[in-house]
Amino acid sequence: MNIGTRLTGWATLIAAYAAVVAGVIPFRELPPKRQQLWLLALAAGCALCWICVSWLVTARRRAVSRKRVTRKKYGPRSSRLVCWVLGFGIALASGAALCQGVGPDGPYGEWLAKVGQADGATHDVRIQRIVGEPRSTGVEINDVDEYASAVEVVLPFDSGSRRVTVENVHTPGMPEVGRTVRLLYAPSRPDLGVRETPDNDIGTFVGRLIALPAIWVLTFAAGVVTGMVLHRNESGVRSARRFTPRVHLPAAALLACGAGLVLPLLTGFPATGTGWALAAGAATTPWLALVWLFRTAGKARPS
After folding, report:
1. What's the distance, Cα to Cα, between the start and end of the chain in Å?
2. Where are the transmembrane segments (predicted)?
3. Residue 155 sits in the same domain as residue 246
4. Of 185, 211, 241, which marks where a domain is finished?
5. 161 and 230 part of one domain
6. For the chain, is the Cβ count within 10 Å smaller at the N or the C terminus?
7. Nearest 5°: phi and psi at 71?
8. CA-to-CA distance for 216 and 207, rounded, in angstroms?
């Protein structure tokens, strides 16, 4: 294998690994996810370099083979490490795509992103006045009825203190003047408004404490199984390492389609159903590319 194809190939794998690991780790920035976008662009650039270098090496090898009758034969290079790297890489890419479907979405997610970019945080604020009549939510917390009400508070924005009315503030028991509530806002951006901190947000609970760990466990299990299967088919992995346009270009196109499907989740806040559909579609493309690669690599023969 040519040193140029080896370097560009491993550079592509390393950049791709960095991109997918950034997509599955617990700390994930809200859109626009610039770090993941840059890493995806880097991986795509390295892959393009690998394709170009491989194409040149293949063309040169064919030209040399026409001039020489015999060539020195070398034993097949071991691909055991590549089997495990590729197996876990495919699983991580699929898991990273699914992870993008977890988290705040829609208008609320966009508001959270703007507040975060403005260095917003949660603050304990005292109620100054109860606006209207509190209503029971029908929920009990420690045998105490929960109420939702509109309250007036004084917030110390950077431009000066302001009286603000906040809707749908939940409290265990009837709200009272002087009671402390937790509100989320950005002191430098009063125009963004104020909302109650979503301590009991069921979507956040399900996403952070159930969906993400489930995705991580399934990703690890899929990586182990895929690595074992590829290790048993090391000869197929070895043949797939040599660039063949009709084999690798369609596989690269499938991966590019997956990246295109996940881009809206990295740059914006689609609705929940749309986001999960995009994430699921993107998660299938690494497996489709792998199936295509090994179904066609064995049939391809260099001309």
Report:
1. 17
2. 7-25, 37-60, 81-103, 209-230, 251-269, 275-294
3. no
4. 185
5. no
6. C
7. -135, 150
8. 12
Do residues 50 and 130 both lie within one domain?
A: no
Q: Is residue 303 part of a domain?
A: no
Which two structure tokens, joined as six digits, stand for 174?
């009837």
Q: Which pLDDT does position 77 carry in this prediction?
A: 59
Q: Which residues of the chain have pLDDT under 50?
A: 69, 71, 73-75, 200, 202, 301-303
Among 214, 210, 239, 218, CA closest to 297: 239
Query: Do residue 16 and residue 104 come from a single domain?
Result: yes
pLDDT value, residue 202? 44
The confidence score (pLDDT) of residue 203 equals 52
| Torsion, Cα of 246, 248, 249, 251 (10° steps) | 120
In this predicted structure, what is the pLDDT of residue 66? 57
For the chain, what is the mean pLDDT?
A: 87
Residues 9 and 95 placed together within one structural domain of the fold: yes
| Side-chain half-sphere CA neighbours of 143 within 13 A | 0
Helices 245-267, 34-67: axis angle to 10 degrees equals 170
The residue to which tokens 């479907």 are assigned: 101
Q: How many domains does the chain have?
A: 2
Indicate whether 274 and 161 sit together in one domain.
no
- Number of neighbours of residue 162 by Cβ within 10 angstroms: 12
Predicted local distance difference test score (pLDDT) of residue 113 = 82
